[in-house]
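Workshop exercise sheet. Pairs work together: one partner reads the sequence aloud, the other fills in the structure field after running the prediction. Swap roles for the next sheet.
Pair: D.N. / O.F.
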Amino acid sequence: MKKLLILLALSISIVNAGTISVAVAANVSYAIEDLKKEFNKTHPNTKVRVTLGSSGKLTAQIKHGAPYQLFMSANMKYPQALYKEKIAITQPKVYALGSLAILSNKKRDLSDGIYILQSKEVSKIAIANPKTAPYGIAAMQAITNAKIKNDVKSKFVYGESISQTVSYAVTAADIGIIAKSSLYSKNMSKYKENINWIAVDSKLYTPIKQGIVMLKEDKEVKAFYDFIISKDAKKIFQNYGYLLP
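Structure field:
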């Protein structure tokens, strides 16, 4: 009887086990593993398969039938468009507020904040492409509001996503405007605040409302969706430099 119960429990576990497919904005790549681990504490049999990319490109894939079940965007624009077109089955909800930072792989005097971009020592500035990446839009907003766009626009090197922009910031460019969240990954720990990076004054741009929508009706998808907007997930987002909605 005991063996039968064990076999029954195993069979139920296998039946309940599943994989969900989640399209995730690149800026969340640094937090997503911790989010998955926390989720799997209560849903150990659910595998979360993540596809990373710029929000614009992921949206285009979704519109062309990519089999994602959940979309975590870097802003609200794309989830709202998917909901309006009846591709998303839930109204967009804000799960975190994204913020900006300026990063250099060299030690720099960052006391001037965003105005360091005008320095003669800075000839290339990495920013995310504002046509496809919400963090690029926010970076342009900050530069414009700081009234330095005309001085620095010839220096721009565009990344297609925020992760590519981070890569450019520490390799192909002298400095970059990136998602602050990216600085909290383990491989970025060598870069120190006020030495290699500084937060961009949030008065210069609107903190980015990052939105989530469900694309398919599914119990396990709903469970992950509920987790992402939960208090437990918000603690993790805070640990990675996000602001709370």
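Discussion prompt: Residues 2-16 form the longest helix (15 residues). What would you look at next?
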